[in-house]
């Protein structure tokens, strides 16, 4: 309650849908206030390039809500929080096909409708008032109204307030711990093995390979075709032994080479940019020195740190997979190719996310100081979508790999 000339004025928090015509600048201000890290510590700031919905816009269904302070049910004062959510259909497990007598059963994907919460923000001066909980519950209501069976969130395992909110008050349980592997883009190119040929696939060939070989992978999106045909997808690339003649995905799947690897590249640079803030002059000077040395002596292939202390873009590598005893070596060649592509596009870093059980976690080059462990928490909202073959997905054991959707990175 607030007093104004002897008259009491009730201030309430109203949760409503984001209005791009009137809310843009106010939402951006809240985002800026929330991104400020502790004094003297490095913090990662996200530039949304004037589009607060950019990180969910490419999903099949999405919604952004804001929390607004309103006086006496009439005049709005300020936006104090926001949340984004999206819904898609993904693989949550497998089942055996029903075949005729004598035929070998095949593993088939079991799909579920999955919702994802991201970008929950509450203004620092309005925290501990239950606003975050209200935003989550209203978003979950929209999830349920649209048939989502599960909801999940991704957060830094060290983010205690976020973990406490979702696991303590919202009913989520810790589910998966994938590794986010980040590598800076050097001023010099990385070498790619001359024994390996890398070709760019047509979206239709990429879709055929992904559906045939990866549709039973946990979190595989059923609308993979929408991702591969999106303008942000820079292409799907296949690493093959030199001398292998490519004649199409059907022939490849029926008679693949012993070793191969595949990878797609998503252009996050045109969606948002990142910036590391809070660095000392000494750190900035050291980073600049590494770049100067790398440009001056590219033949030395010195590791250098890009301009991460000003806004920089990134490429997301997703859909990494393959087969054969030399599979990880082929994946490394794809990584080198992706690094060089990011250099041409003037990106600061490249990143990928893999299961904690995936051998790629150790094989893919990355800088530990830039990489981290993610925490995915999950909640069951209903039981009306999947066919019961999996049971409660929350209780399942992690697989060897996961399929990370680049639209949600």
Element pattern in H and E: EEEHEEEEHEHEEEHHEHEEHEHEHE
CATH fold node name: Aminopeptidase
Which descriptor suits the 3D outline? globular
Quote the distance from N terminus to C terminus. Answer: 41 Å
**CATH top level class name:** Alpha Beta
Overall pLDDT: 90
Low-confidence stretches: 1-6
Write the CATH architecture name.
Answer: 3-Layer(aba) Sandwich
CATH superfamily: Gcn5-related N-acetyltransferase (GNAT)
Total number of beta strands: 17
Radius of gyration based on Cα positions: 23 Å
Please count the helical segments: 9
What is the share of helical residues?
A: 10-25%
Global structural class: alpha+beta
Number of domains: 1
Biggest sheet record = 13 strands, mixed
Into which percentage range does the β-strand content fall? 25-35%
Domain N-acetyltransferase: 13-191
Family: Belongs to the acetyltransferase family.
Protein name: N-acetyltransferase domain-containing protein
Pfam families: Acetyltransf_1 (PF00583)
């Amino acid at each position: 309650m607030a007093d104004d000339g002897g008259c009491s004025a009730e201030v309430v928090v109203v949760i409503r849908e984001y209005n791009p015509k009137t809310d843009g600048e106010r939402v951006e201000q809240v985002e800026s206030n929330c991104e400020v890290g502790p004094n003297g510590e490095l913090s990662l700031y996200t530039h949304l390039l004037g589009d607060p919905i950019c990180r969910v816009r490419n999903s099949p269904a999405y919604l952004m809500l804001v929390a607004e302070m309103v006086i006496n049910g009439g005049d709005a004062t300020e936006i104090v929080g926001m949340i984004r959510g999206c819904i898609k259909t993904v693989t949550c497990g497998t089942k055996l096909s029903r075949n005729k007598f004598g035929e070998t059963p095949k593993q088939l994907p079991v799909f579920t409708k999955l919702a994802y919460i991201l970008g929950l923000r509450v203004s620092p001066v309005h925290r501990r008032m239950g606003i975050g909980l209200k935003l989550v519950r209203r978003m979950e209501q929209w999830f349920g109204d649209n048939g989502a069976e599960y909801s999940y969130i991704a957060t830094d395992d060290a983010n205690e307030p976020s973990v406490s909110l979702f696991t303590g008050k919202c009913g989520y349980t810790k589910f998966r711990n994938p590794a986010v592997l980040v590598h800076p883009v050097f001023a010099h190119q990385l070498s790619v093995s001359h024994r390996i040929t890398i070709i760019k696939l047509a979206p239709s060939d990429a879709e055929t390979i992904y559906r045939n070989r990866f549709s039973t992978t946990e979190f595989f999106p059923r609308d993979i075709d929408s991702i591969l045909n999106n303008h942000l997808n820079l292409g799907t690339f296949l690493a093959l032994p030199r001398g292998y003649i490519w004649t199409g995905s059907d022939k490849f799947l029926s008679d693949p080479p012993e070793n191969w690897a595949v990878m797609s590249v998503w252009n996050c640079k045109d969606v948002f940019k990142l910036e590391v803030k809070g660095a000392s002059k000494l750190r900035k000077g050291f980073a600049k020195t590494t770049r100067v040395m790398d440009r001056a002596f590219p033949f030395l292939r010195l590791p250098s740190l890009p301009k991460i202390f000003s806004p920089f873009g990134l490429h997301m590598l997703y859909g990494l997979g393959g087969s054969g005893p030399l599979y990880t070596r082929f994946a490394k060649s794809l990584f080198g190719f992706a690094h060089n592509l990011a250099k041409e596009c003037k990106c600061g870093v490249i990143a990928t996310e893999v299961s904690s059980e995936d051998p790629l976690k150790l094989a893919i080059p990355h800088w530990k100081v830039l990489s981290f462990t993610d925490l995915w928490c999950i909640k069951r909202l209903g039981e009306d979508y999947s066919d019961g073959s999996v049971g409660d997905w929350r209780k399942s054991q992690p697989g060897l790999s996961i399929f990370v959707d680049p639209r949600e990175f």
